[in-house]
Amino acid sequence: MNATSAPEKKSRPDNLLFRSRLEICRILQVLAQDESPLSAEIMHGHPFTTRLVAVDPETDHFAIAYCAHKQINTMVLKSPSVEFIATDKKGLHFTFEASSPEEVQVGGEPAIQFALPKALLLHNQREHPRIPLAADASLRCIADADGFIPFESHVTDISHDGLGCLIYDPEINLEAGAVLKGCRIILPNGDAVVADLELRYTATDTLADGTLANRSGFQFVEKSPQLTKLINYFIQDLDKK
């Protein structure tokens, strides 16, 4: 009798690009909890070493500790953006670019606050490639297409566990617990993923151009193989490209 071979263990991709805000927050929160080292080069190559001290998903900001050199901290605050590299306990490297530095207090200690990064790159290789950013990471969605009042919206986030975020006109009033039937989420190649979405919360948001919009967190009523297509759009395996 031939021995049964052990199933091949699927390894994690060496390079993953996260554009999911939910996943980015989770990763930064783990890095902060583990006090993982964070480094950057500031203005003409000055080294800056620090750590994450706070991540606030509600305000879309995170904060880092001051380093020991006052002059370097001042350079960071004057930089329009900073590219950070973090290394976790497993030796994995995370690169992300953050903007809008501002001096704040965290736990009574001085800190520097940044806006949450729009993308985060996980990579195992020594060199850290530049983060490839799309002009718009959102997906057009005809929400409630099979319901009573179909309306235009955009899906701006989907995480590994199927949680997401929907942006739509502020004149449309929806409550937590509402189920949007047969929503058609359009991928860049023209394919449509059809799913029922259950809203978890609704809040008013200010977009980058200053206009107001409603933002609702949602979850898929039923998870299907089509969900993988959407997740792969917001969390890309760069080794396949």
Describe this structure as you would to a colleague.
The chain is mainly beta and 241 residues long. The protein folds into two domains: 15-123, Electron Transport, Fmn-binding Protein, Chain A (Pnp Oxidase, Chain A, Roll); 139-240, Thrombin, subunit H, CATH 2.40.10.220. It is built from three helices and 16 strands. It has helices at residues 21-33, 70-78, 226-234; strands at residues 15-18, 37-42, 46-56, 61-65, 81-87, 93-99, 102-106, 109-115, 120-123, 139-143, 151-158, 163-168, 179-186, 192-206, 212-220, 235-237. The strands form two sheets. It has a ten-stranded antiparallel β-sheet with strand order 7-8-4-3-2-5-6-9-1-16. It is globular. It starts with 14 loop residues before the first strand and ends with a strand.
β content, as a range?
over 45%
Structure annotation, total helices: 3
CATH homologous superfamily assignment of the largest domain: Electron Transport, Fmn-binding Protein, Chain A
Proportion in helices? 10-25%
Low-confidence stretches: 1-10
Distance N to C terminus: 41 Å
Largest sheet: 10 strands, antiparallel
CATH class of the largest domain: Mainly Beta
